[in-house]
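This section describes the prediction task in plain terms. A model, or a person checking by hand, is given the sequence of a single protein chain and must write out its three-dimensional structure as a string of tokens. No templates, partner chains or ligands are provided. The sample shown here is typical of the held-out split.
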Amino acid sequence: MPDKPRKIDLSPEDLKALLERIKPVVSDQDYEAIKAMADTIEALSQVTDQKAASIKKLLNLLFGQKSEKKNKVLPNSGKKNGDNPKPTRKRKGHGRNGASAYTGAKTVVVGHENLKHGDPCPECINGKVYRCKIPQTVVRIVGAPPLQGTVYEMEKLRCNLCGEIFTATPPEDLGTQKYDETAAVTIALLKYANGLPFYRLEQFQASMGIPVPASTQWELVQALGLQAKPLYTEMLIQAAQGRLFHIDDTKGRILSLIKMGETDSGRKGIFTTGILSKMEDRTIVLYFTGRNHAGENMRELLENRIHGLSPPLLMCDALSRNTSEELTVILSNCLTHGRRNFVDVLTSFPEECQFVIETLAKVYHNDQITRDKNMTPEERLAFHQAESKPLMDTLYLWFNKQLDEKHVEPNSGLGKAITYMFNHWKELTRFLETSGAPLDNNICERALKKAIIHRKNSLFYKTENGALIGDIFMSLIQTCTMAGENPFDYLLALHKNPSQVAANPGNWMPWNFRQAIPSPN
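The expected answer:
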């Protein structure tokens, strides 16, 4: 059995030098043949590297990428021979939650069966017992269908002589509607916050003996969504005044638009855009599903911006559809996207990519320090200029050297990754020039997971109206989460006070709605 061929890594310069050494000792005919073989091997190597990167991207698209963290893509980074690996730290809690974590649970106070506050101590007799600040707690978790029902049987009595029927009076708190306000809120949260389709909830409820048809679920959430529409409009106006915007797109599906085909301008695409507007004391998250891409949705949003305000910061990836010529913004591009290109070709160019990834890891470490120390935007900018700018300058010079001295083929995977960084260097390093500019767009990508989970589970919206209802709920729920509020409490408060919400939507934002709830008489 022939020996396995030995792999030799030769750079283009090494290959060229080898040919120069061979040329004097072989005939011209043999030299041309050897040169042709060398050129073929070089071309095949480039194609193989590009295909490997493409296959990796395809696998990540199909099955998802577990992690892009440095210790995952470079498991031996920073370790020397003989070093003992650091013990893995277990996260605090290990999945166990204390009683204080159950903020939505009902609290039942159980008094002592024999003693009360101020009673004499039964042990020492002379002392008195006082209530401890921290009580003993026991948490009890019970299961139940998401939607529960109660059948009220009002007794009926009939006179056997005159035939008059006497019916028991229903409980005062029963109301006149079959579905309580909490039902619509629960369905909306299951659907638009957790991606549970109507038909799956219908099947589950039917198996539990409390049927709620999918059509009824839609009627309930549509009515609640239309009540909340003034809030969505108010959020658009307030979000337009933000100082920093994160935007990104993902695919969307609306059956009515798909059946219509392409528009007069030839556009077939349907997108769900996520726009995250950061202000001094709050963050608003907005979703838009339709034909418009992120740049167009951003342009329409900024039409609500007060004239005279300074141009906002805009963080996005380098796709052309994320920007528009009409936008007056300070553009910043996502450094994670630039880094990802090197992660994709790591197996083909391990040493070069390791250098880039480790250098960027130091920049991200510096950014973490600014967060840990709660630095102001101005302090953060000064810190990055002192600590991160030398790192980025070193990286820029290294990129130049690789291309100028022909250490890398421009059309290879590594060459394309370097070229991407060069083409967008100013936007990628905006955090070194502008106060408050972020390093990446990860926060917006995380927010878009709401829409992605919904698309994967429910597959599509049927109409543009259905997409609007979904956008309203996702915007309210995600903004509520960013504000640290309970989405269930928030949507329930909106459902119970429709007239007040319509009259003054600004008083019913996720960060101030509790002050607007009428006090009970």
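For orientation: Residues 234-449 form one domain.
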